[in-house]
């Protein structure tokens, strides 16, 4: 009996030393690596490999979004600001617009600057946006224009996290507690 109890305790302790899964949603085995060709909020053509070397969080949305985008980005910005300086300096956030007709580089720059220095806006033509949204299984759809030419865009609200090599690691949903998001971001920065 004593040996059985000791073996069980040893197994639990060893399990605690192993690589634990993410607190948010683990997507490492189901999502492709970071890959795109877009335009940044400075108007420069950029490739995904230019963002390698730092853990990267990616969110798809649009600047005219009345609720989901600003709430998600503000929540993400708050989570990052609450981390220690070293962790915060390691993180970069890419906001990829699904509304390239209205989200010019200038508009994106003003918008992302409101959330913090870690945020960079990206856009491109519709074909470029479709290529990356299809790659990450992001659904979006344009609503009907009103009399002023304004319209809503329905879109997914998940945040994807990639390691320094551009490999997908986890996905953050609105329902994940902020403490879990912070723990996973910190762990992502600590991975070599």
From TrEMBL:
Cu cation binds at residues 65, 69, 155. One of its GO terms (molecular function) is metal ion binding. Keywords: Copper, Disulfide bond, Metal-binding. Disulfide bonds join 65-69. SUPFAM superfamilies: Thioredoxin-like. Residues 27-190 form the Thioredoxin domain. It comes from the Bacteria. InterPro entries: SCO1/SenC, Thioredoxin-like_sf, Thioredoxin_domain. Belongs to the SCO1/2 family. This is Cytochrome oxidase biogenesis protein Sco1/SenC/PrrC, putative copper metallochaperone. It comes from Halomonas citrativorans. The lineage of its organism: Bacteria, Pseudomonadati, Pseudomonadota, Gammaproteobacteria, Oceanospirillales.
């Amino acid at each position: 009996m004593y040996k059985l109890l000791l073996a069980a305790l040893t197994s639990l302790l060893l399990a605690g030393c192993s690589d634990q899964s993410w607190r948010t949603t683990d997507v490492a085995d189901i999502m492709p690596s970071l890959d795109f060709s877009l335009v940044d909020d400075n108007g420069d053509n950029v490739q995904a490999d230019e963002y390698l070397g730092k853990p990267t969080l990616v969110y798809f949305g649009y600047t005219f979004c009345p609720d989901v985008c600003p709430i998600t980005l503000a929540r993400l910005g708050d989570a990052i600001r609450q981390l220690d300086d070293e962790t915060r300096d390691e993180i970069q956030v890419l906001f990829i617009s699904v509304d390239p007709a209205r989200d010019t580089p200038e508009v994106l720059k003003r918008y992302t600057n409101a959330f913090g220095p870690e945020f960079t806006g990206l856009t491109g033509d519709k074909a470029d946006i479709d290529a990356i949204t299809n790659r990450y299984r992001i659904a979006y759809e344009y609503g009907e224009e009103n009399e002023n030419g304004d319209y809503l865009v329905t879109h997914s609200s998940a945040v994807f996290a990639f390691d320094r090599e551009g490999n997908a690691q986890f996905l953050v949903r609105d329902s994940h507690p902020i403490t879990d998001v912070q723990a996973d971001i910190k762990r992502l920065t600590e991975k070599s």
